[in-house]
Amino acid sequence: MTNESSSSASNFIREAIEEDLRQGRFTYVRTRFPPEPNGYLHIGHAKAICIDFGLAEAFGGKCNLRFDDTNPVKEDVEYVEAIKEDIHWLGFDWEDREFYASDYFEQLYQFAIKLIKKGKAYVDDLSPEQIREYRGTLTEPGKESPYRNRSVEENLNLFERMRAGEFPDGARVLRAKIDMASGNMNLRDPVMYRIIHATHHRTGDQWCIYPMYDFAHGQSDSIEGVTHSLCDLAYEDHRPLYDWFLDELEIFHPRQIEFARLNLSYTILSKRYLKQLVEQGYVRGWDDPRMPTLRGMRRRGYTPEAIRRFIEQIGVSKNESLVDISLLEHILRDDLNQRVPRVMGVLDPVKVVITNYPEGQVEEFEAVNNPEDESAGTRLVPFSKVLYIERDDFREVPPPKYHRLSPGREVRLRYGYIIRCEEVVKDPQTGEVVEIRCTYDPETRGGYAPDGRKVKGTIHWVSALHAVDAEVRLYDRLFTVPEPGKPEEGKTYLDYLNPDSLKVLTGCKVEPSLLNAVPGDRFQFERKGYFCVDPDSTPGHPVFNLTATLRDTWAKIEGELQGG
RNA sequence: UGGGGCGUGGUGCAAUGGCAGCACACCAGACUUUGGAUCUGUGGAUCUUGGUUCGAAUCCAGGCGCCCCAGCCA
């Protein structure tokens, strides 16, 4: 269960590729991941990336990175850099195959000329509103534009002048002449080129006409010799259009195969919504650890391996599904459990004084760094008379089945001694426990009871004298319902934001070995969860992000006790 | 009679005419110096109707349900 066979799971796309190779439709495999540089990558993109790169590799082929940058007003270099960084972090490499649809603008233009000359494309003067009206509806056919039958010469002339910048935005478009009565809306004379007087992040002011995605994507794949163009289900009914362009242009014909995109419970994976969360301040940025963006997950402490294993596990199909986020969390924990060092950190400290422990004495106990990995070795943890333990690890009135510290009861300090609670000091005003006074049994060094007595509870602790102060940011799911993207009548996804998705804890006490931790370092705080050092950390004052809690069986028991 | 796609436990994915299986979740137990991890076990599914067949989740026909498409976005 720990090490799944890597990327060998079969799926319908893999079978289709095998079939293509067997039949000689293609003699090699080339895929591509085609993001538009207008936003940050999220876990949904990770699925596409793993499929595109993974399948190419599985067949000894390559995967190109191609930016589909056909809309200058929405795109920016900032996004291309971020996208490249995130793909590399995930563990994939496109080597020298970094392409841009904008690299093909001149060729695309020539393709358009060819279609005009074939009488398969025309310049339309209709306004955007008119084009919409002429398009018809889902159940009624559209009608042909009065400009549809212009001569080839006139179309050529007009299109050249569009390129030359003679017309304002929106004045004219170039359209494919296909079928205004088609049941497939994409075939009702789709727009191929529009006029946009805007500076493109790569081509500058070289162009004022830009190809539509539909006129760029298929041909870009063709130019690159892409054999298998894998994409979202949404493009299923665009395929006949791409086929039409490729066939009319008589160029290399890739095979497009569509699969369902990822939906994750308690999560939103829409660029538009994610952007809104950032811009309206619902989260602290694109890399907020609560975000499903790759940068957010990275900052949260996710490993790229866990994300890739998750994508393998969920499989590939055409079913529109909602994957339970607990699967992601399970795989994350499984990965972290194997590789991350253990450490002790007290999130909500309360003071414990060992009354019979010598004043000023310090001992060091050997602690195992990772019980799952012997090679991780051990470390020394200092112990002294005054300690901090978790406030929740003490109950003045212990509930049933509670086997931690309470008056008159014993508990084991992990790697330390067995202690007994003798006295509780409370704040006279608030009644809050301010100090727990205990005695220790000197015979139990290391936590072993030589008399064989059973001590059920083992709790973590930090020596007050040696503790490092830390900030800990606790995260919970951003949304309170499984499908925030499908709000009930009259609500929006924002109505389901979890008000408790972030809790900032200050004054946390962590063991001194954590003083040298650097941003990105991951740890398991024993009995609490996995944490990752945040870039906001300053020397001597680390900040930790909760990556994932440990399974908490006690919380479940207690919840059931309270629930009746 | 617009076009396209999809229906398998609660969730996701398998089974490619031959005993419906795996993972997560759930529930119960064992073990435990992390109430972690690990181990064992229980329950639960083929949208529906009819047909073909010795045999159907799979093939055929009809029905039902859900999703996508009317940007000069991608």
Characterization of the model:
- It is a single chain.
- The chain has 564 residues and is α/β, with parallel strands linked by helices.
- It has helices spanning 12-23, 43-58, 77-90, 105-117, 128-135, 152-164, 213-223, 239-249, 271-279, 294-300, 304-314, 325-339, 553-563; strands at residues 30-33, 62-67, 98-100, 121-124, 173-176, 191-195, 209-211, 228-232, 255-259, 342-343, 345-346, 349-354, 363-368, 378-383, 386-390, 410-413, 418-426, 433-440, 458-459, 461-463, 468-475, 502-510, 522-525, 529-533, 543-549.
- It folds into three domains: 12-259, HUPs (Rossmann fold, 3-Layer(aba) Sandwich); 345-467, Ribosomal Protein L25, Chain P, CATH 2.40.240; 471-564, Beta Barrel (Ribosomal Protein L25, Chain P).
- It is built from 13 helices and 25 strands.
- The two termini are 36 Å apart.
- The protein binds one RNA strand of 74 nucleotides through helix 5, strand 6, helix 7, helix 12 and strand 19.
- Belongs to the class-I aminoacyl-tRNA synthetase family.
- One of its GO terms (molecular function) is ATP binding.
- It catalyses: tRNA(Gln) + L-glutamine + ATP = L-glutaminyl-tRNA(Gln) + AMP + diphosphate.
- One of its GO terms (cellular component) is cytosol.
Largest sheet: 7 strands, mixed
Which consecutive residue ranges, at least 5 long each, have pLDDT under 50? Answer: 1-7
The SS-based structural class is alpha/beta
Mean pLDDT: 96
Per the principal axes of the C-alpha atoms, what is the gross shape?
elongated
Distance between the termini: 36 Å
Taken as a percent bin, the fraction of beta residues is 15-25%
Q: What do we call the CATH topology of the largest domain?
A: Rossmann fold
Please compute the radius of gyration using only Cα atoms.
Answer: 31 Å
Indicate how many domains the architecture comprises. Answer: 3
User: Helix proportion of residues, in percent?
Assistant: 25-40%
- The overall strand count is 25
